[in-house]
Specification:
The structure is a homodimer. By secondary structure, chain A is of the alpha/beta class. The interface between A and B is large, with 85 and 84 residues. Chains A, B: GO terms for molecular function: acetate CoA-transferase activity; acetyl-CoA hydrolase activity.
């Protein structure tokens, strides 16, 4: 039943068990695996590797596109397999190991990993493990629900293991657009000038003799964990839609807006859902992950085309979308994350980037990653790729967390992922701060007046007033700048009740 | 004597005094002026404006390329003319006014100002004041020693004042390459694929009827204030050259290295001078400011071509270079700063970006701008444009300042301009830290061992050890993270002697 998925007959003899394939991975190796936002990861080989490591310990450096599903990062962590991990993760077990200093985690802009590999600034993968719907007559690999870094991993690795996953609709073939930048010093412009341009091939071109093992699987991607919109995320969406209307009225955008990018997760997904009932038409996405909202917007006739690097759906949407792929296929493309997130393309197309902040400060600096400046949540992901070069760099968050114990707006962020220079718009359920063209003191006024939860507004205003009395372009009181975070660590609340 | 500089005869009637031209600038206007790293600024009109404001107060928003020379920012500040200023400055009087909150300073990535104007996200200039060596037969403006944002300012402004500066060698004509990106949604790739590509015109194309005044001047640019190399800057250069040799030996670069970018100032200039005695050959620059070192390298036969947005020279080199321009002209091009600093081009060409840090921290976050997190020095300039997309993002600084009262390597930077994600290499006179592919705890070890002054090494190591005991991906002790800065503010020293 898998023979029609391996269209180069000479490769049929490479079919083997996951355990046999995993045996090709040796202690100390660097391994590049498919998988991006828990979509399209290789499933059987990493599982078999973890099982083997329980008996015979080994350590590897694991590179992926982004996060893995099916608890694979958990299994690999518990089996002690991961010595180094990059460039992104979302697993709670792995997160604990990272924060304990047991796994060295290299948190990277998602567009940059393969560029650093290409420049030999990172160790090249010894072996790549790539999930596929098929292998072509030429021996090229057709990815599944994500492209991520799979193409470059397969190109750079000395050996490639392919997992043919029969659970994926073979009609995914044709969805992908594999473009690899040329080498310097003769690198040419990326010829992508419209969201729906196709500039590459539909499969990953590698010499078929590099394929050393093929494993047949039949296992779904993990369902997305996004929560449905709530009153706060709806308020955030409403503020943003009002803002977009003003931008259109001011002649700065058309009713099509610009190509939209939305980060992974509940808030960004909810904001996108909010566009269903908006007056905007003929929308497009140029994003990294395509979530439920993408398909809801297509179904509503609002979204004309979506470019991404992966598709990650909830149980609600999964069977419907992948079971009716022909309904969507001419409106979709999946690209390598280097291209979906490329600074050149993001700047050229004029992306509207909507990403989630963990916290932001008075002056518009954003922390996307570190709780109290120390403990990693997931990673910066693509937020920096988009925010730096976007037409509009928008960050969204609820104004409070943990029942009000935490304010998402603080005097000084405890870690900076996006500097004030790269942040245009901040939105909480309270309101929206438009920071464009403002000096720091002006930014603070707009943020306090529009984004802060009422329980924290006076305290933040007091901090700002006292800081301004001390002077400075970006007024701070260094003794108190991280006080709210220190309180949180010591008392469980940023401010006394 | 200026008639041959105004080659469209109908414009001769626009010649007037600086005072008359300055009278066109009215209270509340937004004004775009030429000038980048104290090169090629309009000289007479801003001076006349400051003189007038002493009698009749007025306020404007002033945009430039970068810093102005000839004390113009000082004169305008003292006359109370500046309500808003962007995107960069280096004047001590203006700096005081910014830090006092009297002038709203918008500190921007230098590549982004005109992009934000083009998108109407900043107020378009009412009037542009551009220094020129000539006006062509078509009424187009030939810039002088900088291009900066002059081209777009002239294109966006309703009215243009031209200062023809007879002190500049008319042979500067032909040096400039004016390329303006097309508008979205049909923006096309920037067709620049080699450092020496010419992709635009040699003059700024505007309808001549927009030129409302022409002022004749005869005044030099201010000389550069760079200091000669000293033992510490030589040590920094030596560390960097050793590193480049290792990169070549490892096959990651050729003996040509990559196109070099060097920030303004003494340390970066000294590092470039260090290349004169290096084994590297056929070097190129793709930078924003071309300083003495550029011409020293050309004279030494080391540098084949230099692309920049301005030329800023010391008294030592000024007459020699501009008096013998034909010797250098085929090896130089000056571009709009949007193109010299463009993320698309920086990534494509694989720039080696060398910029100066004010301080950096254990984990490789860099502060380029704010003393003790509050007081602005100059601005981020182009450092972020280059660091984010460079092949190698290098930051250099001396390990201590103020006779040892300040360590440039601190537990946590008091302000972040460049995040750990964007910083590859850190260099002080003590040594070089290669951070590529390292997790935060590994970065800290390499930084402590290689970059910190011995007087601070034990204290920083103690902080790191204690922070690691608390845990976290990026270990910090929030109570102590800014302690060194607090000490500095309170006692004048980061650590007790």
């Amino acid at each position: 039943m898998y023979r029609d998925r391996i269209r180069l007959p000479s490769l049929l003899e490479k079919v083997m068990s996951a355990a046999d394939a995993a045996a090709l991975i040796q202690d100390g190796m660097t391994v590049g695996m498919s998988g991006f936002t828990r979509a399209g990861e290789a499933k059987a080989v990493p599982h078999a590797l973890a099982e083997r490591a329980k008996i015979t310990p080994l350590k590897i450096t694991l590179m992926t596109g982004a996060s893995l599903g099916n608890d694979l990062d958990k299994q690999l962590t518990e089996a002690g397999v991961l010595s180094r991990r990059m460039p992104f993760q979302v697993d709670s077990t792995l997160r604990k190991a990272i924060n304990a200093g047991e796994v060295m985690f290299i948190d990277q802009h998602l567009s940059e990993t393969v560029e650093q590999l290409r420049n030999q600034q990172l160790t090249l993968p010894d072996i790549a493990v790539i999930e596929a719907v098929a292998i072509t007559e030429q021996g090229h690999i057709v990815p599944t629900t994500s492209v991520g870094n799979s193409a470059s991993f397969a190109i750079f690795a000395k050996q490639v293991i392919v997992e043919i996953n029969l659970a994926h609709n073979p009609n995914l073939e044709g969805l992908h657009d594999i473009y690899i930048p040329t080498y310097r010093p003769t690198r040419t412009p990326i010829p992508l000038v419209k969201v729906d341009d196709r500039i590459g091939s539909t499969a990953i071109p590698i010499p078929p003799e590099k394929i050393v093992a093929i494993v047949i699987t039949n296992q779904s991607d993990s369902p997305s964990t996004v929560l449905p919109p709530d009153v706060d995320t709806q308020a955030i969406a409403d503020h943003l839609i009002d803002f977009f209307k003003q931008e259109v009225a001011a002649g700065r955008m058309t009713n099509k807006l610009g190509p939209l990018q939305a980060g992974i997760g509940t808030i960004a997904n909810s904001v996108m859902c909010g566009l269903i009932d908006s007056p905007f038409e003929d929308l497009t996405m140029y994003s990294e992950v395509l979530q439920d909202s993408t398909f809801d917007l297509i179904d509503a006739g609002k979204l004309s085309f979506a470019s991404g690097s992966s598709i990650t759906l909830s149980s609600r949407r999964n069977a419907d979308v992948f079971g009716n792929l022909e309904r969507y296929k001419d409106k979709l493309v999946l690209r390598p994350q280097e291209i979906s997130n490329h600074p050149e393309v993001v700047r050229r197309l004029g992306i509207i980037g909507i990403n989630t902040a963990l916290e932001f400060d008075l002056y518009g600096n954003v922390n996307s990653t570190h709780v109290c400046g120390t403990r990693m949540m997931n990673g910066i992901g693509g937020s920096g790729d988009f925010a730096r070069n976007a037409h509009l760099a928008i960050f969204v968050t609820k104004s409070i967390a943990k029942g009000g114990a935490i304010s998402s707006v603080v005097p000084m962020v405890s870690h900076v992922d996006h500097t004030e220079h790269d942040v245009d718009i901040l939105v909480t359920e309270i309101g929206l701060a438009d920071l464009r063209g403002l000096a720091p003191r002006e930014r603070a006024r707009v943020i306090i007046d529009n984004c802060v939860h009422p329980d924290y507004r006076q305290a933040l205003d007091d901090y700002f007033t006292s800081a301004c009395a001390l002077g400075g372009h970006t007024p701070h009181i260094l003794r108190d700048a991280l006080r709210w975070h220190i309180n949180l660590e010591e008392t469980g609340r940023m401010l006394a009740v």
